Fold:
Amino acid sequence: MNDKRPGIFNFLILTLLICIGMGVAMLPLLTRDEQTPFHWMSALLALGPFTVISALLVRKEYQVRRLRNDLFHKKTQLQRSQNQLDQLKNQFDHAARLAGVTEMATGILHNVGNVLNGVNVSVSQLNQSLRDSRLDALGNIVDLMQQQGENLPHFISDDQRGKNLVEALAQLDQIRQEEAQFLITELSELSSGVHHMRNIIDMQQSSAKQVHQHEAFNVSEVIDDAARLYTNALERLNIQLIMQCDDTLLAQTDRPSVMHILVNLVSNARNAIAEAKHDGPRQITITSALVSNWVQIQVTDTGSGIAKEHLNLLFDYGFTTRQAGHGFGLHHSINAAREIGGTLTASSQGLGTGATFTLRLPAVSTVPNTIFC
Structure:
């Protein structure tokens, strides 16, 4: 038995070496991505389970390493993409800030321009009134009285021209009162226009700081202030302004912003009527009411109307259908409405049918009492 052991031991060693050799020879074949059942059956018969399992472990290790490398490359690419995205975001934020500054400046110019139109009309009216004043006749009366000197009492009592002086002076006093009232009205509108321009600038500065002064205020007063700026302009265009206002409605929001929105809406309605090609009524109707805890203000015109395909574009920056328009007013108005917690929408049945703009604001309280103002 002892003589046989070295032979058996040598046989086992030789068999193991052959298996290892064949395993090494077949290792590349077994570690490939694709194997057929024939490959595995051959390996099992030739190498035994141990060698096959070892080959499988080597193959799995190879796959794990490859997956790790792929994951590392994917992670590197993802990080690179994230860095590029961050750079693009920074560039976009910078561009947005610049666009915001430009848009704000455009809004100031547009809104101030609207008010300046009314101010310009008031200045023209004042200038025309002073040029055409009938009080110039007072100078002729004074000259006539000075010419009489000490004979003035007899001139007034005995001369027919003197007797007419008293009546003429009474008429001139009436004219003076009428012209004075006209001047006071125009100066009041001029002052309101200047005050509103100041509010526009203050409002834009507050918007830049994202600060709005929310307060309770009477809605009908703001409607009246906005409409007053266009009184003369509407009269010159033969446009009738109808206001159906609830004088008890209180809104809780930023008053200058509401004024700014209403001025734009009245201006838009005026332009729509001025450009209308039909011969129907020329009217702007402003109403206010309480609707589901909202103060609802509607500005309706009988102007040129809005094409249905344009309704979704109406509030876009730069969109306009007017040759002289810029597309700023409605865009700024809807942004202002959102910033103060309100909404602004538009509706129209189509071209030639007029349009209605609806502004909704947070309400405080109300007692129904509709008046015509």
In short: The radius of gyration is 44 Å.
